[in-house]
């Protein structure tokens, strides 16, 4: 169904970028409907995509905060790459990204070292930001939008592969 595609492709998009532009959401909506961006249903789908993305930012940030608290129990506020890479193993990064990973083709991700490395590195950077923020009694919610470079070009596989083929960098108006 269209609804299923919206949820799955929005989750896959979240794994590539936590930022947004109207052009990005409209293009994703058009590709989900297999139509042009002028189609009358595009505004409704764009709102749904935005809502899914907002919810994912909130939920995944809660997951990063929880992971950072677990890290602090083990290592305190000492941040070192060795500690982070030891603590954030395959299970930890997948658990932190559990919700958006529900949309992906798991076998295709498991077979792709570049995707796994990019997502794990993103989780490591976010947990680091949360550990620092918690130490200062703040939060790191805004940092989630700062690490797109680690994931922007990852061809996140889904059953539909719409996001995998989406020119996200261009639609966000990034310059390489």
TrEMBL record:
The lineage of its organism: Eukaryota, Fungi, Fungi incertae sedis, Mucoromycota, Glomeromycotina. This is 13236_t:CDS:1. It comes from the Eukaryota.
């Amino acid at each position: 169904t269209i609804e299923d595609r919206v949820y799955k492709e929005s989750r896959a998009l979240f794994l590539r970028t936590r930022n947004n532009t109207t052009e990005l959401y409209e293009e994703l909506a058009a590709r989900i409907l297999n139509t042009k961006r002028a189609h009358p249903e595009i505004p409704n789908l764009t709102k749904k995509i935005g809502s899914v993305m907002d919810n994912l930012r909130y939920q995944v940030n809660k997951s990063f905060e929880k992971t950072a608290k677990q890290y602090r129990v083990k290592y305190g506020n000492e941040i070192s790459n060795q500690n982070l890479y030891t603590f954030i193993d395959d299970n930890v990064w997948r658990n932190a990204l559990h919700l958006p990973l529900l949309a992906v083709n798991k076998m295709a991700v498991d077979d792709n070292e570049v995707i796994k490395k990019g997502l794990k590195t993103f989780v490591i950077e976010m947990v680091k930001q949360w550990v620092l923020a918690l130490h200062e009694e703040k939060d790191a919610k805004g940092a989630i939008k700062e690490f797109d470079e680690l994931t922007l070009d990852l061809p996140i596989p889904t059953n539909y592969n719409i996001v995998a083929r989406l020119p996200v960098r261009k639609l966000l108006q990034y310059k390489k």
